[in-house]
Amino acid sequence: MSSQGGPEGESAVRLRITHIMSSQAPPLASLRSDYVPPTLPTAVPPGVLPSSFPILRIFGTTTSRQKICANVHLAYPYFYVPFPMDSNDPLRPERVVRICQRFAVSLNHAICLALRQNPTGATAMSALAGGTDPRHLHVLSVVLVKGIPFYGYHVGYSYWLKVSLTNPARTRVAIEQLHKPVVLGKVWQPHEAHLSHVLQFMCDFDLYGCGWLNLSGGMFRHPLPAAETEADHGWLAAERVAHMAYAPNLSPPRDTHSSLEIDVLPHQIMNRSRLAERTLHQDFVELLHQPLHPEEKLVPAMKELWEDERRRRAARGLGTSETAMLPVSGGGRGRSMAELGYKVDGADVENHGGDWKISAELWEILEERMAIERHRRGRLTFDQVSRALQTGVNGERIKYDRWIMTAFEAVSVGWPKRTQTPRTQKTQKTQRMSPPSSQAQAQAPPSPPPEEEEEDEPNPFEFATQVSQEHVEAEVDAAKVQEDYTEETEPGERQHLLAVREAEAFRATQVAIDDDDISRFLNTQVGESRATTPGDTPSKGSARRRAIEHAGFGDLSALAMSPVRLSSPHAPSTPTRQNGTPRSLVRPFFAQSMTPTKSPLPPLTTPTKGISPNTVVLPETRRSVTVWTPSPRSPCSPRDTKSSPLPHIEEEDHVVLTEIKAAKAELPPPNAQLSPLLPSSTIKRRLSQMLTSRPGLSPTMLNTAGATPTLRLASAVDSTPTQRPRKRVRLSSPSQVLALADASRSSNRSDPSNRSDPFNRSDPSNPSNPSQPHAGGAETINSSGPDFALDAWTFADAPPSKQHIVESMATYGLDTVEYPNPFYSNPTDVPPHRKQFAGRVFNVKTNTVADLQPFEGDATPRHWLRRRRTEDNTARSKHGWEYGAPPPCKRVVVEWCAREDADEAKAKLAASQLAGPTQKNKHGFKFTQRVARRVQQNMSVLLLEVFAPSRGQLLPDPAEDEMAAAFFCFENEDESLPDTVNHTGYHAGYVVVESEQTAERRARLDGVPCFYVGSELDLINWVIDTVRQWDPDVLAGWELHNASWGYLAARASQGFGTDFADDISRLVSSVGPARKDAYAEHQTSAFKVAGRHVLNIWRVLRSEVTLNIYTFENCVFHVLRQRIPHYTAGALTALWRSKTPAHTARVLGIFFQRVVLYAELIDAAEVVSKNAEFGRVFGVDFDAVIFRGSQFKVESFLFRLAKPESFILVTPSRDQVGLQNAPFAVPLIAEPESKYYSHPIVVLDFQSLYPSVMIAYNICYSTCLGRVEKFKGTDKFGFTELKVSDGMLELLKDYLTVTPNGVVFVKPAVRKSLLAKMLGEILDTRVMVKHAMKHARGDKALTQLLNARQLALKLMANVTYGYTSASYSGRMPCIEIADSIVQTGRETLEKAQELIHSRPEWAATVVYGDTDSLFVFLPGRSKDEAFKIGHAIADAVTAINPQPVKLKFEKVYMGCIIMAKKRYVGMKYEHPDDVEPMFDAKGIETIRRDGFPAQSKLEEVCLKLLFRTNDLSLIKTHCRTEWAKILAGRVSLQDFIIAKEVRLGTYSSKVPPPPGAAVAFRRILKDPRDEPQYAERVPYIISNASGRRLIDRARTPSEMLASRALAIDAEYYIRNLLIPPLARIFNLVGGDVEQWYESMPRARAAKRYGGAAARIDAHFASLHCRVCGGEGGPLCEACMRAPDVAAATVLGRERAVQSRVRDLHSVCASCSGCPPGETVLCDSADCPVMYARVAAERDAADAADAHTLLAQLDLEW
């Protein structure tokens, strides 16, 4: 096959992928010699080919919008098994080839036996080939490759057999045989066998769903399309692709119906060239030689998203740097080398594995294990391990390893031969991962010169495979190997240090530090140097130089004295590279510079000139930007510094200046006390200087310049020059002043902390006093001051200001806000006995004066102060007269009357409906409106619906009912198809079978394309031809089993015996009859078409929107905000067969509108556009996004990262997964204290806790070294055993992390985990995308695209942990990994909880914790204080955790009820500026879908009343009012519909089924075609019908509306469904909901209906007058005496009811499109108007009966 195409770097053909599928096809003649390469061991005998080979068919669209199919050949499914190394010379080529050949034949034989095939029949021609029957050839090739085991930490290559098969369907059979000892007599562990053929191919060639495929060549099959017009730019016609086409007489027949079809070989796929191998794990590469570049994108999908955003920003003129695109990292980017685990000079911290509660115990066990291994083997060095990995056990790797391909290189095995340079040791050693920047390349130290090898040396494995049987022994110099083991390890360690320093120097170039910080530090040090050498008078420059050296900067005179800045990391030389660099710096020097030091001189305040603000740059700090609190971290102790002897150690600048930045954030507040480190003599001297040097200060006057000075007997030095407002001076007598002064002195001497006045500003222990010296020194300050005469007068202290009192209340433990408790506003509602619940006693009182708490204060009682008696409530003060309230004016009276009238009207309107909560929108939509606008999605969608007249009221049956019409809507980008509706890109129409109803075009829709066919068969053929012509990518319908495409396929099969799905597929040849797929029937659709996606819209919407009922009418209302009618099959048939043409046209309009709404639903829910973007991000096909699980998507990410690093992932069997240990760790879900919290509750949430934990602690399969302590004497790890070689733990001792559950992992310095790479880039990319959304708010299409991307990234980050913990259905689980993540997250929450409880200034209590969130209770705090403390807690917890673990502030509940785990409700504020709170509920009936609307309404209204008023009397009154409506039947049936999922066929016959299933069974008995789909939500109502069981009383809404004898079971609903959820809430506040209902009067209205279905209560007579409502029978005496009034009342009521019926009928007629006067046939159970119309019609019938009363009146007409 020719591979010619465009020039190198350009694609000859480019297509956007819409669908990928794997199929089998006979071999092509042109590839006959390439299918089975002769140099590979195989089970296929020479001269024979298997009957079929796998072909990957990639359907897509070219850049000119042509439909194309690319057939990819020679891309076989494969898996790996470990190569047996049980030999002295295991890699000898003859042995390798022999094992590969025997394995291929043996596995092929086992597969044949499993498939009941006879491989040794009479037609067998070769014993080694397993027979020449092409159907019996399954194993194509077996080759030796090398890779790194992924399941556990392994260093160095292991060897594997790569097994390629001829059919992906045989993979499962092969795996089953490998787990048995039938292949070569042993059990083999498969690897990478759980990956599907399509996903395996996409990972190997860097392809993504709905992405681009670039081809450098290929061969087009004939016939080729002709160019339509001259203006078709880019149209791939015959003239343009003739050089890439087969010869006309040699072209293979077309396999598809696409416009273009091209055959492609793997090497012609240019996408793979974007992948580069990363050889990192054959040695300690990351630790000793080459750390990973911090800015390199390793996840290919993330790289494309970054490049896409970079191009978009460049087009808008915005910055394209990573800092501009990613303002805050979410995945741990920017961590220092020390945080990554590298050794940093000057930071010799002993590693203990972690900082957990049992870390010391775990490390002690680990050290004991290290000591045992050291005694057994001795100490290991890195060089010893590296040389052992290069030579092997017996030196077998020295000669043969270089000829063995890695797993990444082995993808090209079996490709057609091309000119390639033989792989040598030289090319292998020099192949390293090259960072994109020149700086990173300069940092990598040169590798030792490799030995010269002959590049023309033949591959011994290929030679042995062909003809050679000679024995080639490995030539190993044992003496040389022993000599290599004894070499010194110093060079490797030196390279490690150099690499660390170079990488750290690069990281120290991220964010600039302030020049003021450096200047203040240098000036401070200059002052100290002057103080220490008072005899010297140095110049300014020399003093600064010595200050720099004293600080640890070394020789940085050029940096300090000249405005030189560090250049770009790409520059070859900078001043900092030519001079010494700092080693470390004292962290708290900034804090000391703000306090008095040893020097008598004050610190300099003038900034030093000559230093540029951009002199040194650093990475960003971790603390979030907030205005609430300073950093909770305390300064570290100073460290001694030494200058480095090494010439280039720029990384120490980063360490130093990072500490400067941290110290700057830890400056003491302005009111901090003086440092206790200074001697008392210095304190006295400085205080004296301050008192004497500052103007306006004297020993007796605090501030002579103040407005009103205050004189007092000074008992202590007070240097606070506070200014108070001008107030009246209160003088005290000398004796009182002296007594108070003496008392103050004695109190200070006895107990400084004992203060009677909490607001005494002269209190030295008051932390709010900013100038009090530290009292803990050995000496004391004589601050008694001058003595005054005993008869002198002094000014008394001014009272504290209001602001000071409010701000200091929390300091003294006083509540700043008083929150009321629940109460009864009506004293008669107070229960006679106290409520007892859950061991607590509630004494709820009223808010009247009688129950007010007595005032608690220390005010002296006055004789004129009358106090209310609290002993009894009868005593009242009777002290004279008082003025009464003036009478209201006319305006007030008129306004009051208007309000009363309005309230009365509202009460009448609400008398027949339940009162609902205030909704976000007045129409009851559950979702924000999304305009159904079509975004260019490059995927065409064809939607179809059919109409078939039925028999009676039965649904259409394809076995009996013929189709009369088909309706279509084609979403496309084809400009040749006109838009037939108001939406762009919608081409809709219908095709009708000519009949009596449609004769002479009597029924048509204006402006809509219409096609007429002669018969039903012509209709089917028309649909087939249209599908082939338009070639849609997606086929969709609302319900595909009983209607739409499914009905059409069933009708074609049962009526005409044709396979409709095969006729509309994209493949020419049939793929065989579709097998019955139970999963597809229950989860997706049983209707499948090869080469096209099929969408069952209602099932797709179940995962897109959250609704109680998923009927078509309900989904249209909530998603599209339209009310549409619903008609029964009988009504539609009657309209179609009507003699009126308008009725037939109405049927056409109904179905035409319906199919267009299908398209609008898909666009509004973003089904195609969003899932297409998900496919690009996940790297899977469009179909897999919707119908495959999360593990499949995680594997797409994981394999794309693992393959370039030659990781081999294991495939456990179901039995092996079940042999894992049970999970040890459980998430922290603290049992909350169930109560009502009226004080603020702050909700804090860890941002992506589990992904952050995996990144921060480097948790992954590939970094795990197993358990600290062996499990029952074994190295149990997941489903297998992980054996770590002796000495490895001690060798990596300084680079280990031990999780709280006792599992050991290496730090990122040794190996950055694959999960950390994946999750880090996912979180960073999501932050970048969300940041980009802020700049795209005006572009709806771009916002929709970016939102889909960030949702996909969020989903992927959240499901990664589940991939490791799937213990039942897991594809590669590991319980040790999952436990490590869970236990680490649990202890992270516990540490946060301990920190919160240890800070007394917060006075906070954690009342509930749930996996990754904390509920913090703040008693007595205001909303603003709650926000302040919440942000402070979030910053403090974030600071004590490693990056990227971050605690985020989420919301504040002002009023909250926590009932149980995951069940809470409250009024939330998300921002301090929020004025009105939002109702927020989790896990209760207001948001659950297993209840009914009345339950949700009543509970939400009661909760809002509680949170807003705390008045239980209001709640009690509201509940009683609603219950009275239910008992009287003045409610809508729609509020009591219960809808639950029904799964027929899964219920046990031993117990009654649920009511929904019983309703479904009754529906099936009436109509077998009316069977609900699997997991469909079936609506029903519990009626008052006879029967004790619920299944006997459950009825459908249509049955309830059809019979007046049926009504809701009010007692059941109230007692069983309404009271229990209310009781669970109000029991926590002392309310007795059951008693409220039991004590209310309950009256029942007599039913006025008869007939055969009448109940006994229909025969009861009413005692009330039907005119006035009074007692006295149907017509009381008073009404009889006033017949004119009675008649007017009766007739007025009848007129009002008829008017209401007429209004509702007009509403329904306008919706359904029927003319006035006709019967409305709509019976939509989702429309409230229909229930109101039925109720009004019943009231009209009752009003008509009132005419009989007029005959009893004495009327004169």
List low-pLDDT spans.
Answer: 2-8, 419-455, 467-492, 506-513, 524-684, 686-785, 864-879
CATH architecture descriptor name of the domain at 1220-1482: Alpha-Beta Complex
CATH superfamily of the domain at 1220-1482: B family DNA polymerase, palm domain
Q: How far apart are the termini?
A: 105 Å
Structure characterization notes:
The protein is of the alpha+beta class and 1757 residues long. Among the domains are: 493-621 and 631-665, no CATH class; 678-784, no CATH class; 941-974 and 984-1187, Ribonuclease H-like superfamily/Ribonuclease H (Nucleotidyltransferase, domain 5, 2-Layer Sandwich), CATH 3.30.420; 1220-1482, B family DNA polymerase, palm domain (Palm domain of DNA polymerase, Alpha-Beta Complex), CATH 3.90.1600; 1493-1659, Topoisomerase I, Chain A, domain 4, CATH 1.10.132.60; 1677-1750. Helix content is 35%, strand content 11%. The protein is built from 54 helices and 35 strands. The strands form nine sheets. Strands 7-1-2-3-9-8 form a six-stranded mixed sheet, with no helix packed on it. The protein has a six-stranded mixed sheet with strand order 18-17-16-15-19-20. It has a six-stranded antiparallel sheet with strand order 28-29-22-30-31-32. A hairpin with a 2-residue loop joins β24 (1276-1277) and β25 (1280-1281). The longest helix is centred in the last third of the chain and has 30 residues, at 1683-1712. The protein is globular. Residues 2-8, 419-455, 467-492, 506-513, 524-684, 686-785 and 864-879 have low confidence and may be disordered.
